[in-house]
Amino acid sequence: MQISPRFVAALIALAVLSACQSTQAEPPATRLFQPAPPGAPPGTCWGKTETPALIETVTEQVIVQPAETGADGAVVSPAVYRTETRQQIVRERRETWFETPCPEVLTPEFVASLQRALAARDLYRGAESGEMDRATRAAIRRYQSPDGVDSGILSLEAARRLGLVAMARAPDPA
Questions:
Q1: How far is CA 149 from CA 20, 143, 166, in A?
Q2: CA nearest neighbour of 49 among 103, 91, 94
Q3: What is the pLDDT of residues 100-148, one digit of tens each?
Q4: Nearest to 98 by CA among 150, 170, 24, 25
């Protein structure tokens, strides 16, 4: 039996498509170790989240012709309306940059400490694996979201609040 090249190409396309769909569990707008934003100090590492614009369909009744009333107040002819539907941006697209611990800091020991810190706050329920897996990223997102960083990438500020990274020391007033 001869298999046509067209059939093989269709099977490959189907396999690629199904692989793409299965990897999109976390929002695709989260990226790690981006080139730094303008003005960032050299040697720092950055993450970025891109929140898409929120667009809503708005439907309104617009008066074309007002109602006519007689001298006695009776309606002679009713008002005429037209329905208008339009798209409206409810929330603008937003790009958020935040400093992250650099890759050399994210060792298995560091990630295991991160998992313990998140578990102590009842945000992580997985095994202490030392791997930055889906459960760890979801816990990071839950921890950072109230502070405006809706990302599974650990921000440097969150790592400091968790006690995982040293805080910058304030200069001595001399």
A1: 26, 9, 20
A2: 94
A3: 999 999 999 999 999 999 999 999 998 999 999 999 999 999 999 998 8
A4: 150
Residue with tokens 């100090």: 41
**Pairwise CA distance, residues 165 & 111, whole Å:** 12
Bridge-partner residues for 68, per DSSP? 77
CA 133 to CA 124: how far, in whole Å?
11
Q: Which band of pLDDT confidence, cut at 50, 70 and 90, is reported for residue 57?
A: very high
Predicted confidence (pLDDT) per residue in 67-79, tens digit = 999 999 999 999 9
Closest by CA position to 129, among listed 113, 153, 152, 117:
113
